[in-house]
Amino acid sequence: MMRRLPLILFIAALAVGPQLLPEFTVTLLNYIGLYAVVALGLVLLTGVGGLTSFGQAAFVGLGAYTTAWLTTVHGVSPWLTLFIGLALTAAVALTLGFITLRMGGHYLPLGTIAWGISLYFLFGNVEFLGGHTGITGIPTISLLGWELKSGREFYYLIWLTVLLAMLALHNLLDSRQGRAIRALKGGVIMAEAMGVNTARAKIVIFLIAALLASISGWLYAHLQRFVNPTPFGINQGIEYLFMAVMGGIGHVWGAVLGAGLVTVLKQWLQDWLPTLLGQSGNFEIIVFGMIMILVLQRARDGLWPMLARWAPATTGPRRVPQADALPRRPAQTAGTLLLDAHDVTKRFGGLVANNKLSLTVQAGEVMALIGPNGAGKSTMFNCISAVDPATEGEIAFLSASTADAASRDLAGRGMSRTFQHVRLLGQMTVLENVAIGAHLRGNKGVVSAALRLDRAEEVRLLAEAARQIERVGLAEHMFDAAGSLALGQQRIVEIARALASDPALMLLDEPAAGLRYREKQALADLLRKLRDEGMGILLVEHDMDFVMGLADRIVVMEFGEKIAEGKPEEVQSNPRVLEAYLGGVE
Ligand code: ADP
Ligand code: MG
User: Fold this and answer.
1) How far apart are the CA of 8 and the centre of ligand 1, in A?
2) Mutual orientation of helices 252-277 and 151-173 as an angle, nearest 10°?
3) Which whole-number Å values give the CA distances from 493 to 367, 471, 551, in the listed order?
């Protein structure tokens, strides 16, 4: 209750606002609401997903012009044009998204600028859209027989939209799909290896952001009752981005805060600066720019996180999710050939990191891949898991070639892995990180998540993640941010995440590095148990006591080539191995 108090007060204030406030303030609040809807899309797209767009104003324009034209020229009902506008926006966003989202780095923001400018000029130059004069006489909206004629009335529709959009976004981010989306910024390789289709996730957030912008445009057109191209230009696109960044990119509330601050600040500066300076001019833009730089420098995550610190603390210890176990894939009988890598070669330009390397892993065995630093072990892991596919050679997993498979396909087929350089989402809890491993064991989509229809599945996924965390001995850290754990523990979190996918074969790249003696023993016990249950484990590890005590078979590499293979005792006495490790013995 205490935790919800600020929210309840906020909604109460919103509800009584138009009854108490002067006309001017209500108008300002209407604009803040309209901007907030667009900024919410940017929070998802840019803040959470890491995809920068300067072109959102164009989508606002698409929603506004669609309804303006159809209602005035063809007399279509505004509620119908809302959906037509959304369909049109979706079509445009999907087309643009498929083209631009492939472009990495600075090409994407440049692409968004390009289409932002193009659409703006399209609005201004198409004759039937009224050119630069625009379209007037847009009808009002009726809501259940109540005609929203004044700004005071329209206010309720705007802010209801804002609250619903916030709720849907909040729900989405707290779900299986939300975890996949949150992995887009800095975790694409990991997420793909856990079975997430990251290209699809990018398109989805791009689409959601565009649709929110389109809804804002529809509202704008019927509030203002005329449209022209000006508010849909690239300047406004940049300003939307300012709002999201200033308010707190990545936070649902940041969108509202940012929209509010930018709008009020600009208004205030516009009113006061000319008086203060004694001359007229667009001084607010200059001052606004300077304030923006200051905010970016002082509060990189925007102002919302600073404000949130004043909120009442979240209540007590969190409950460990509990639910029935998820269905598991049929266990492999010990001795079944899981992995068959044959003559695998991997070149990086002139460097041959793996040279005709072959190895196999069976169900119910621990196979260790050892060799000095730089021998090519991690490269081999990347070839096997299709994270960075081999240049030549054949790899079969469960008797099927992996030649055309992406790493997420292999995850679906029962292969999971950890990374030598830990790939966790540091700000997310251990529980959420591990739940990403269980991504393919659920199937609820974005819409179910936004509408909270995914809860039964969600609790099962989280319960599975919790079980794996308990299994690896990290129960006490379940709700800690993954990045706050010691590096050795983070490696163990990666093992739990791999286990959450219910793999038949697990690839572990230096899992014991950074662990203390007892922790290593516990890890070895766990791996033995998994092996006895029929899992195949391919292990890279430098701690020779750990490897020799655990592995059933060992492949030794040096300079990308296999120099020995066999049982631990055979390998240990092999002169080439001793030479590679000790630099030659008599
Ligand atoms: P190990 O895991 O056995 O220590 P790696 O597989 O990481 O060795 O590296 C093997 C060799 O391949 C090293 O010489 C390394 O510098 C090189 N290498 C690894 N990844 C890349 C890459 N993406 N681009 C170029 N060279 C690479
Ligand atoms: Mg390595």
Assistant:
1) 55
2) 140
3) 21, 11, 22
Residue-wise pLDDT for 522-537, tens only, equals 999 999 999 999 999 9
Is there a contact between 167 and 256 (Cβ–Cβ < 8 Å)? no
352 touches 345 (CB < 8 A) = yes
- Contact yes or no for 539/368 (Cβ under 8 A): yes
Asked if residue 572 lies in contact with residue 410, where contact means CB atoms within 8 angstroms, the answer is: no
Q: Which residues line ligand 1 (CB under 6 A)?
A: 348, 351, 353, 371, 373-379
Determine contact, residues 522/529, Cβ cutoff 8 Å. no
Q: Count other C-beta atoms under 10 Å from residue 298's C-beta.
A: 9
In 294-350 the beta strands, taken as DSSP E runs, fall at 337-348
In the chain, the amino acid numbered 342 is H
The structure's pTM equals 0.93
Contact between 228 and 134 (Cβ < 8 Å): yes
Helices (H), 340-406: 377-384
- Chain segment 491-526, per-residue pLDDT in tens: 999 999 999 999 999 999 999 998 999 999 999 999
For ligand 2, the distance from its centroid to the CA atom of residue 444, given in whole angstroms, is 36
Cα 373 to averaged position of ligand 1 atoms, centre (Å):
9
* Contact call for residues 111 and 117 (beta carbons, < 8 A): no
Output 566-569 pairs: Cβ under 8 A, ≥24 positions apart.
none
375, 564 contact by CB (below 8 A): no
Q: How far apart are CA 471 and CA 387, in angstroms?
A: 27
The count of C-alpha atoms lying within 13 angstroms of the C-alpha of 42, restricted to the half-sphere facing its C-beta, is 35
* Beta carbons within 8 Å of 370's beta carbon, 6+ residues apart: 377, 540, 541, 542, 544, 547, 554, 555, 556, 557
Alpha-carbon distance of 551 to 388, in angstroms, equals 26
Nearest residue to 41 via CA among 282, 210, 273: 210
Q: What CA–CA distance (Å, rounded) separates 224 from 43?
A: 26
- DSSP structure class, residue 75: -
Structural contact between residues 467 and 515, judged by C-beta atoms closer than 8 angstroms: no
